[in-house]
């Protein structure tokens, strides 16, 4: 495990404190992908693995959480992607699993914050705008995941880049912030800290990690993507989404109808490697990812580059 930077120490860093980790890097929740194989590697490296619920496969999720406890004794969290988990008992489900940290996303922060916090969990809510951030703080969340529109996945139809959104939210709220969208290394982590974050979340970088369970075709598509190779789809409807440019997504780019219904057969893409079977959610940062690396290397490289960047700026 890399030596943690002083800026990560829980005496000064509220994200490290809240998550109980040495390194305030969070692996993004991602349906079917954010499971124990990937998340345990992240937690074992000193950062924070997250288990998804957006697949809706709660029996499997329960097994994955159990597997996490066998694979690592380090902290991890769970995400509730509200628009995608229709089970009304999802908050009780997460509480019953005994996890301490939860991120809520894709829905109103008023829905679950109270019940999760009453059960003693730490709750961070994912926000794509200043208005959403203020609403989440009013709802009593412990912290925010501030997610810029360059990131992969389901998005607000009015995307705002991390560079604009993060300092804007920082200037208006006091709670700790985890930055998401465009972060893949120590330079971008240092930039996020400069803009007011105390932690970062990586999605696309983790899809392409060696321990990610997705088919190698998707990892290689990320590795070979240019920064211009994502498309922003469905911005006249909700949810909008950012995904890799493929034949499937190019055909949907100018569609009038809600293309969420055209998402496709996720498992044939994720595990079968058919890049046109479904929409391959990925962020613009794919253009900066050049290799498939083990999670431990990604985390260690990020920490050492963060330290070098901060030292360079100071000196
Ligand atoms: C394949 C994929 C699936 C995702 N699924 C979820 C999800 O279930 N819940 C959620 O809150 N965010 C989800 N996201 C968004 C990520 O949590 C993260 O905020 C985003 O990927 C950050 O931007 P980056 O891709 O530039 O790292 C997903 C992203 C990707 C790429």
What does this structure look like?
The chain has 315 residues and is of the alpha/beta class. The protein has two domains: 6-212 and 295-314, TIM Barrel, CATH 3.20.20; 216-285, no CATH class. It has helices at 14-19, 36-44, 58-71, 90-96, 113-118, 130-138, 162-172, 186-194, 204-207, 216-224, 247-252, 266-270, 295-314; strands at residues 25-27, 49-51, 76-81, 101-105, 122-127, 143-147, 153-155, 177-180, 199-202, 230-233, 240-244. It has an eight-stranded parallel sheet. Strands 7-11-10 form a three-stranded antiparallel sheet. α2 (36-44) runs parallel beside α3 (58-71) and α8 crosses α13 (295-314). The model has no long low-confidence stretch (mean pLDDT 97). Flavin mononucleotide (FMN) is lined by residues 28-31, 33, 52, 54, 79, 81, 105, 126, 147, 150-153, 180-183, 201-205, 207, 281-283, 285.
Tag the structure with descriptive keywords:
3-stranded antiparallel beta sheet; globular; 37% helix; 13 helices; 2 domains; binds flavin mononucleotide; TIM Barrel; 315 residues; alpha/beta; 8-stranded parallel beta sheet
